[in-house]
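Changelog entry

Holo records now carry the ligand SMILES as an explicit input line rather than a separate metadata file. Below, a converted record for adenosine-5'-triphosphate, shown in the new format.
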Amino acid sequence: MSTYTDDERLDATGESAIEAYGLGKRYRRGWALKDCSFRLPAGRVCGLVGPNGAGKTTLMGTAVNLVRPTAGTVRIFGAEPGSAEAKRRTAFLAQDKPLFRRFTVAETLRMGRELNPHWDQRIAEQIVRSGDVPLGARVGSLSGGQRTRVAFALAFGRRPDLFVLDEPMSDLDPLVRRELMSVLMAEAAEHGTTVLMSSHQLADLESICDYLLVIAGGGVRMAGDVDELLTAHALLTGAHTGDGVVPRELAAHTVVESRVNGRQVTALIRPDGPVAGAWQAEIPSLEEVLLAYLRSPGTPPLISPSAHVDPKAAAA
Ligand SMILES: Nc1ncnc2c1ncn2[C@@H]1O[C@H](COP(=O)(O)OP(=O)(O)OP(=O)(O)O)[C@@H](O)[C@H]1O
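Structure line, unchanged by the conversion:
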């Protein structure tokens, strides 16, 4: 029996938006990113998750040609990030959303139109107008959230095939966050746009993303289709009978995290075959899996088949 779902088979044979092979970046104080290998299939909406300082911004920087890797390679739709092809197909919304403060909103959009042959004025104006941001206002006079909206419009108007967003929602109120996310989702679904978005808002990611890349300490901890990553785990609850925090009958499996609470033990595991013992088992939520991995840095990484790359292919 095949272990691949139809989606995975399509992902594994289809186009890659991003492929990274042994990607690393070293700053003076040490490695910000180390030996990262993964693949993001085209058309997926991928959440990039990790603790502060994990290397998320650095990773995105390598994909959009703002950071030069110290080791390894990264390819955007098969091309080098610095190539005209990759630049044309990629838009980046940076954490600090740099814009010309003296430009008006209309001038900012005009600049977008003049610099980008595939510019979509309709969507750019729609994003700005739906937030009641006056087209004549200077960017420097806007609130942080309004500036985010303009930066979003500028990036979106380029009609990218790959949209990379670094914590785009951090300064937006919940209503605006929801509105811009639904614009993003609708446009991504209509045009098959690949999205890579970092966020610390796990609940937002759970409702938006169908793909996930988790990094910690500069390394990939988990990568792949969300459903597949979740079903690779079981959340077990049972009576605590032994002495240790990890029950003996779970030793044959990968125990991501185990906690004892009075007479009860709860364990998040990656089962490697049938689980012995009297356990109540359920599929964990995305938040439960993410938090457990972030709390347990020693757990071996989990890379699903569609996110796997062959290191030998890097030289090809
Ligand atoms: N330009 C730089 N010079 C030196 N060190 C840097 C530079 N940029 C990032 N670093 C270091 O690299 C590591 C990863 O930083 P990065 O900004 O990629 O993390 P992050 O996951 O985006 O963090 P956060 O969630 O806090 O935004 C950190 O230790 C950071 O101090």
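Spot-checked after migration. The chain has a mean pLDDT of 88. The pocket of adenosine-5'-triphosphate is lined by residues 27, 29, 32, 50, 52-58 (CB under 6 Å).
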